[in-house]
Amino acid sequence: MSTRRSFIKSGCAACILMGAGMSFLESCSTPLPMIKLASTTGGQIAVGTDAFANKGNMLVVRSKQLEYDILLIKNADAYKALYLRCTHEGVGLTPAANKIFCSAHGSVFDLEGKVVKEPALRPLKTYPTEVINNQIIIHLS
Ligand code: FES
Fold first, then answer.
1. In the chain, what is the greatest distance between 2 CA atoms, to the nearest angstrom?
2. Count of beta carbons in the 10 Å neighbourhood of residue 60
3. I need a labelling partner for 49 at 20 to 30 A (CA). Which of 6, 29, 63, 133 fits?
4. Containing H/E element for 83?
5. CA-nearest residue, atom 1 of ligand 1
């Protein structure tokens, strides 16, 4: 016969496993579309606005000049560029539909780059962007 204490212990263990499972499932959603760029020029990356055609409002940008990818988010005619490097210990991040996950120690960031779940304490690095002649310019400085 189970005691009240053992019932609570097993219930808490089940809740922890369910919570971990939910985070795992969220981070394993369909990968976002990616664009691979051969090079950067003059401390900036250019991505054609047409790269978003039929791909939703988020695009992962990969360049050989950067150690980690950039998540480029379209919001109307403005673009936000988030560097996908965890601010806790510098591990690469996994973006999903609504959040950005770190598999190393479980930090979670929102699509503004703000910390949603520690241990990371600082927001993600963002790069300024501008649109010139249908090119989204990401300034890497
Ligand atoms: S490196 Fe991302 S949470 Fe530790």
1. 73
2. 17
3. 29
4. strand 78-83
5. 89
Q: Give the chain's domains with CATH numbers.
A: 32-139 (2.102.10.10)
Asked if 81 and 68 count as a contact pair (C-beta separation under 8 A), the reply is no
* Cα separation values, 11 from 8, 19, 22, 34, 50, Å: 5, 12, 17, 41, 50
Q: Are 72 and 138 in contact (CB under 8 A)?
A: yes
Distance between Cα 87 and ligand 1 center (Å) = 7
pLDDT tens for 110-125 read: 999 999 999 999 999 9
Partnered with residue 2 across adjacent β-strands are none
| pLDDT for residue 28 | 54
- The residue assigned the tokens 């991505």 is 47
Q: Is the CB of 120 under 6 A from ligand 1?
A: yes
What is the Rg, in whole angstroms, of the alpha carbon atoms belonging to the chain? 19
